[in-house]
Design a protein that fits this description.
Number of strands: 0
Helix content: over 70%
Shape: elongated
Structural class: mainly alpha
Oligomer: single chain
Strand content: under 5%
Radius of gyration: 17 Å
Number of helices: 3
Largest sheet: none
């Protein structure tokens, strides 16, 4: 564990749940806005776009599990979380470089 204090762990779980809810709803709102206003794609494409996003999320979840298991076995139970921080930082850098917003 990174922290041995129950209250810090509980606060992390609560904040993690809130941030996940915000992440999902913010992405959907952004996607609808980009789809309809910025790119003016046909409305009927929206269903297939969200279907692809859901399928892609499932594939990423499977791959994350396949990568996390050996990391946890080799370096301990918090290693997958540490690795996810590196991926988060890499993704953030790509967003800063490539997204026009």
């Amino acid at each position: 564990k990174h922290f041995n204090n129950f209250w810090w762990l509980l606060a992390g779980r609560i904040l993690g749940g809130i941030s996940t809810s915000i992440l999902m709803s913010a992405f959907e709102a952004w996607m609808v806005s980009e789809h309809t206003q910025r790119h003016a794609f046909p409305e009927k494409w929206m269903n297939s776009t969200f279907s692809l996003q859901t399928f892609g999320s499932g594939i990423v979840a499977i791959l994350a599990g396949l990568i996390a298991s050996p990391l946890a076995a080799e370096f301990g139970p918090v290693a997958p979380f540490d690795a996810s921080l590196a991926l988060l930082m890499a993704g953030g850098a790509l967003v800063l470089l490539w997204w026009p917003e």
